[in-house]
Amino acid sequence: MMLRWPSFVRSAVLTLALAACSSGGDGGTTQPPVTQSIGLSLSATSGTIARGASGNSTITVSRVGGYTGSVALTAENLPTGVTADFTPSTLAGSATSATVVFNVGTTAAAGSSTITVRAAGGGVTAVTSTYALTIPTPAVALTAGTGASSIVVGGSATVPITITRSNGFTDVVTLAASGLPAGVTATFTPATIAAGSTTSTLSLTVAGTAAAGASTITISASGTGVTTQTASVALTLTAAATPAISLTSTPAAVSIVAGANGTTAIGLSRTGGFAGDVTLALEGAPAGVTGAFSANPVLAAGTTSTLTITTTGAAVPGIYNLTVRGTGTGVTATTTTVAVTVTAAPGITVAATPTAVSVAAGSATTTAVTITRAGGYAADVALAATGLPAGVTAGFAPATLTGATLTSTLTLTSTTGAAVGAAAITVTASGTGVTSQTASVNLTVTAAPTYTMAATAVSAQQGTAGASTVTLTRGAGFVGTVNLAVTGLPAGVTATFNPAAVTGTTSTLTLTVGGAVAAGNYTGVITGTTAGLANVTANVALTVTSPGGGTGNVNWQFCEAGRFPLWFAFRDGTTGAWTRVTAGANQTYAFTINSSVGGVAYAQPLSGGPAQVTINYFTRAELTQMGTLECVNNRATKALTGSFAGLGAGQTGTVNVGSSLGSAAFPTTTFSLDADDGATDLLGFRTTTVSGGTSVSIVADRAVLRRDVNYAASSAIPVIDFNGAESFPVQTAQFTVNGGGSDLVQVYANFQSTNGNFSGFAFGALFGGASPYTVYGIPLARTRDGDLHMAIALASTLSGSEVSQTRLVAQYNRELANRTLTIGPSLTLPAITVTGTSPFARLKSRGTWQTEYPDAVGAGFTQSSGTARSWTLLASRGYFGASAEYDLETPDFSGVAGFDNNWGLRTGVATTWTTNAQGGLTGFNQIIEGASFKIAARIGTVTP
């Protein structure tokens, strides 16, 4: 048998042999035997092993010197709870490898230790190797879902909880939550995770009262022997969504031809948990456009409804934004808009401009007829007119509108025989394939242009001239020029018209009477001619008187040409005949009254009528005085012009030159007037009209006073400057008025210069207001002897809009100072009777004298309808003597020479009557310092 040496033995022997050979000699010395031993090594010299786990390492034992004995393996220094298992635990023979397994018990203490592995065999020295053992501390790890949760207030949510056990930890884990906001509760399922289980579910429940906001919840996991672990959950509480609805329209714009329909889908979206029905409504649809929904209301399960929009042919083309409104219980209404474009259907419309025309009989008029094409309609349109009144024809130019031609001229021609009146003419426009359309033209046929003429009577002495006013009354729109001429006048009378070609309504006919013309009554014929109309005539009555007007103890003279009498008569006493008097030199009427009383009557020119008749019943002394006052109160006049400076917005300048008044309201500054002849005074005021509630006052602030002026006829008055050096502030005073009662009270003051009468001024409370009233006048320092302010308080009783009675008190004082005025009582209502109707109407006013008004009485009868006529009767108490009554009757002058019955009042015509009585002034020269008088009047109507 061959003996095999281990490899390391063979290596040692070889080494020894080589050494011997190298020493020289051929004989060797016997070497001692090799020492046997063992070596030990571990494949893993350290490890971390958790409790309940194990770890291993491979053991390698090296045998030296041919050692073949058994080697026993053991472990030393094992920690409590740790065991070591060797496989095999003994290496026999030549075995060199084993495995050691370290088993860490569940109760082993955590920590580090060094275990010694020992190899021992017979005859050899035992060897060791170490294993560094680490037993880690048991632990648990925790995760909470994604670490965040968002919950709507009133709702709930879950968060998955996962644990991970490590380092031998196998025990139960208890879960808990902290940091919960108010109103939030947490529940774990399960709250304790059993051994072997790793999950739980966290349920978060949010009360409806919880506040919205963010917070952090801490989740903790704890177990025996392990450190408690935590995880955070970022909790966001959001407010509960409000139940709501919203609408959409698809498409949002619809185009429809008038007369057709279109649809759009209305989409409904519910949010916030709303699940109720929704009612739909269409709003803003114009005339001719309606809508209907396929589903209305839209039930809880529905989300759409189809809106069908229907138009009529009358729908006006255009773009309309219609509103679809959705409403439901518990939600705010919502809307969506549908833009509907209505396009015109093919068709036409027609209109006339102007729609109302007027044509005089025998002439023509036109109106423009315009069509509008719609919907692309381009065919010809024919025009026709119906409803024409008799005598009127219609013509269109053109009668057919083609292509781009849209307007035609309708000419309506009236014959001279056409009936006067109104007619509605229908213009019809018709075309192929479209409905005919109409337009109305209101035609008024008026009478052919015409005019009438009237002339006032003229009275002139031989060798003088007189004037007649020729009045043209134009009718039926006549505006042409009328040329005037007069015929039929006696030889020696020449006539001049100013103007002779009348474009307005009046002309002045001046008749110059030669000295050789016989006294008497004449009639001239005035002829008016104008193109296209028949001539029109009017008579003018001329009375020629001789210069010798007679003599007597009473002389009446007239100085103002416009007041020269057409006829003059007197009566001696209270009864008897009236005697006509003709004018003498300088328009003086002389006559004799033997009785203590008498009457004077005269007819004067009346604008708009044949004459104004005045009858005066007074004592002989009073009549004598009145005759001398006519030329004082009614002087001859001269034309003047002028202008104001210093006027501003809302201001008026007013000026008197003597008794003549001129005015201008800003921005106008110029004026004209007919001033009295001779020297007089000029007085101007600057005023503002002030309204307050129901009151109206004229307030003066500056005045200009020029003394002793005598401007040349037809000249310009030097500028009246209210801001200039000659102007001065006005004087004011407070007047307390008693007796006005509930009547409308007016309080104002006039200024009467010793060198002129400025009775035209009236500044102060014109309407309404309350006592005391402010009046305006001239400062005392600027007055002269004889200057007087006349303060007036007037109370008017209104019956509806008409004045039925007035009461007046006036007082004269040089100085305008605070004073008291007391208005008298009402005038007792007089009896108004008709005393005759032929040859003209005659009226009487009869009443009783009152204590407050004992001095004079007057009556007036005026007809203003048609041709104006006016009669005035004046009487003093002295005329009636001791009689307790007054009796004012219009006389019958039809038998008096020269009287024209056409001057009398007409029967069947409404007549305004006025009766007034006066107290306080018994003569004509009693206007002195402190003088005062009262007047009361009654007003009514009567038809004779």
Summarize the structure.
Residues 1-25 form the signal peptide. The chain has 944 residues and is mainly beta.
SSE diagram, text form:
Elements lengths: L6 H16 L14 E6 L3 E3 L5 E11 L6 E6 L5 E6 L2 E2 L5 E8 L6 E11 L5 E9 L3 E6 L3 E5 L3 E11 L6 E6 L5 E6 L2 E2 L5 E8 L6 E11 L2 E13 L5 E7 L2 E5 L3 E11 L7 E5 L5 E5 L10 E8 L6 E11 L2 E13 L3 E7 L2 E5 L3 E11 L6 E6 L5 E6 L2 E2 L5 E8 L6 E10 L6 E10 L3 E6 L2 E4 L3 E11 L6 E6 L5 E6 L2 E2 L3 E8 L6 E11 L2 E13 L8 E4 L9 E6 L6 E2 L7 E4 L5 E10 L2 E11 H14 L3 E9 L5 E7 L2 E6 L4 E7 L3 E13 L2 E15 L10 E2 L5 E3 L1 E8 L5 E10 L2 E12 L5 E5 L10 E12 L2 E12 L5 E4 L8 E6 L5 E7 L7 E8 L5 E8 H4 L4 E5 L21 E9 L12 E11 L2
Parallel strand pairs: 2-9, 11-18, 20-26, 28-35, 37-44, 50-69, 51-57, 59-65
Antiparallel strand pairs: 1-3, 3-7, 4-6, 4-8, 5-7, 8-9, 10-12, 12-16, 13-15, 13-17, 14-16, 17-18, 19-21, 21-24, 22-25, 23-24, 25-26, 27-29, 29-33, 30-32, 30-34, 31-33, 34-35, 36-38, 38-42, 39-41, 39-43, 40-42, 43-44, 45-48, 46-47, 46-49, 49-50, 51-54, 52-53, 52-55, 55-56, 56-58, 56-61, 59-62, ...
Keywords: Signal
Describe the protein:
This protein has 944 residues and is mostly beta strands. Among the domains are: 99 residues, Immunoglobulins (Immunoglobulin-like), CATH 2.60.40.10; 100 residues, Sandwich (Immunoglobulin-like), CATH 2.60.40.10; 100 residues, Sandwich (Immunoglobulin-like), CATH 2.60.40.10; 100 residues, Immunoglobulin-like; 186 residues, no CATH class. Helix content is 4%, strand content 58%. The chain has 3 helices and 72 strands. The strands form 15 sheets. It has a 17-stranded mixed β-sheet that branches. A hairpin with a 5-residue loop joins strand 68 and strand 69. The longest helix has 16 residues. It is elongated. The termini are far apart. The N terminus is likely disordered. Keywords: Signal.
